[in-house]
DNA sequence: CTGAAAGCGCTTACAG
DNA sequence: CTGAAAGCGCTTACAG
């Protein structure tokens, strides 16, 4: 895995452009001097510095960061591991991470899982091979031993999961899911189903919190598992749930995320069920879509942009000081009540 | 610009992990042999190859792609320049590009503009410094001379804009905008406004096509320019448009993209205007949001996923053969009629 | 089948 | 203030 023998892609592009050596040659000075001047380091006379910068500009010199990092024995770029680019929560995180990085001379190298339902450890390998200095992962999977092996190679910022000894930026799913269920219970619902996706290690907090909340109110838990976490993946499970025989259909559904909630919404529309008349619905994430007129989805706000910013800040901090104290920021989610929830019809 | 003297970020992470030299030393062979074996090249006995791969695995060897590219005088990674990660069209493109690249040993380096309304040439600089072998840009800006200067450094795949001599993956905006206007005209609308964003070079096709279509039907063009292309940026312009005194408000709006159409929708809801009763609305992009029950937006489908796939394919092709014939793929958009358009009230 | 040498573009000590 | 040398991790000719 680490050394793929079938590699060696034929496709390559020839390298081009002026180098520091070219500039040094043109000016008749040493490469060292050019390097120093370009980086604004001490040890170059003002006049010389000006000449060098002017020449660099004229020649359209662009520094080869990869070579610089190799020579400098350092790594400055940030790797971001995303589960699904099309899910608004991840694109929001991408956006806020990028904003924090902008203007800080940090490159962003991306690894996106192609099958979000089954996160691939290889995705992070890409980042390691790209020699990033820190990895922000929105889906830290595997055992704590796996994670320890990873962090031995590169500092990790874990999002949405708390990992002991690792910088963690999370949202309290336990609280979020409880608020969702309690809100439905307060409205009078007892038959509350939970639509979620495949279970993978470290990502069961919402489900477990749902189960605990249900048992606390003495109601049976009803977990339905879709093939994934996207709207498309959730559609057939959603349909199955809503097509249950009369009396077995829940009066409310709490979905693991807004995408799955939207799947429920579409399925409900197909079956002629009205929301919240026939079915109350709670999502999770508070995506911008959830707040749209006509969607009006009750959901749990996790402040995705804040999470992204915090993760980027943690990454920059870790890059600057590998020995800094471990960060464990846990954000409190809050319920945003909109029009998709109401009292059950027959109660 | 090219040589920023204020650079030299303090934050760095020390490099770590086994190298080919480490493996060679452990096995008592040359570095060359290790390199050959790791890449599956000829010239290594099967037994030796096996030993080397086994050792690499055991030591958790991870190849340093940056060093490999530097030494091999080639570039294999793909740079993607996105205008706005939160706009669904770009996240869809990101997703499809990444899918095409997955499993092909291609890294994706991302540059996202922080202010999409004013694309920053520096964003692409980041990609150049990351030594990417090809740049896919969703917003090629500047004059053709600027573009020529860029393509002298790195092959470019231009999206959404046709650039002579440059691989271009575009959608025919002229046709798309005409279809939108004609659809509204067919419904009986004459007062059709166009909500767009700031003008920048190479991106005025929809606007111009709208203007031509309006003048073809003998109606006055009514272009309203928002501060940007995002929903938030469009909100105040949308409000201004809909708050016009009676008789001056358009009966239909054709928006530059779905984001701006959603801004119109929100503004209309705030003002108590119904869609399509009081106002017909056409977007552009056919984002997944547009098709949602409750949104039901008539829009122009540009097949964003296809565009992304085509761009990725063009990038891979260009990487493999710098001398390949220039690609100019132009997709035909089509109108998707949904519930946001209808006959004008008083007609 | 295997190895010694040169070099990619850059930076970091170390000498002047 | 300036330069010659060594080296980052790797690959590519070139010799055996």
UniProtKB/TrEMBL annotation, chains A, B:
Pfam families (alphabetical): Peripla_BP_3
Polar residues compositional bias, start-end: 13-22
Disordered: annotated span: 1-22
Identification of the protein by name: LacI family transcriptional regulator
All copies of domain HTH lacI-type, residue ranges: 18-72
InterPro entries in alphabetical order: HTH_LacI, LacI/GalR-like_sensor, Lambda_DNA-bd_dom_sf, Peripla_BP_I
Keyword Transcription in annotation: yes
Keywords from the UniProt entry: DNA-binding, Repressor, Transcription, Transcription regulation
């Amino acid at each position: 895995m680490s050394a793929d023998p079938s590699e060696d892609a034929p496709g390559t592009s020839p390298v081009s452009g002026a180098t520091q050596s070219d500039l040094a040659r043109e000016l008749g000075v040493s490469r060292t001097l050019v390097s120093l001047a370009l980086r604004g380091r001490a040890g170059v006379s003002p006049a010389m510095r000006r000449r060098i910068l002017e020449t660099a500009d004229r020649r359209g010199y662009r520094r080869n960061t990869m070579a610089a990092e190799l020579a400098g024995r350092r790594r400055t770029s940030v790797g971001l591991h995303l589960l699904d680019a099309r899910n608004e929560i991840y694109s929001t995180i991408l956006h806020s991470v990028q904003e924090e990085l902008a203007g800080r001379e940090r490159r962003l190298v991306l690894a996106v899982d192609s099958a979000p339902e089954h996160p691939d450890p290889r995705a992070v390998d890409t980042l390691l091979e790209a020699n990033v200095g820190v990895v922000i992962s929105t889906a830290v999977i595997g055992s704590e031993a796996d994670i320890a092996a990873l962090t031995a190679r590169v500092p990790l910022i874990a999002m949405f999961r708390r990992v002991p000894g690792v910088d963690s930026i999370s949202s309290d799913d336990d609280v979020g899911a409880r608020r969702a269920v309690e809100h439905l219970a307060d409205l009078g619902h007892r038959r509350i189903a939970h639509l979620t996706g495949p279970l993978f290690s470290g990502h069961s907090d919402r489900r477990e919190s749902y189960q605990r909340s249900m048992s606390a109110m003495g109601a049976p838990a009803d977990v339905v598992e879709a093939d994934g976490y996207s709207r498309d993946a959730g559609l057939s499970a959603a349909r199955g749930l809503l097509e249950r025989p009369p009396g077995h259909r829940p009066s409310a559904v709490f979905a693991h995320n807004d995408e799955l909630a939207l799947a429920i919404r579409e399925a409900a529309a197909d079956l002629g069920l009205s929301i919240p008349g026939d079915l109350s619905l709670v999502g999770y994430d508070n995506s911008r879509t959830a707040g749209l007129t006509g969607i009006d989805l009750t959901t749990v706000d996790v402040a995705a942009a804040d999470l992204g910013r915090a993760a980027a800040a943690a990454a920059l901090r870790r890059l600057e000081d590998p020995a800094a104290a471990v960060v464990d920021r846990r954000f409190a989610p809050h319920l945003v009540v909109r029009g998709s929830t109401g009292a059950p019809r027959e109660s």
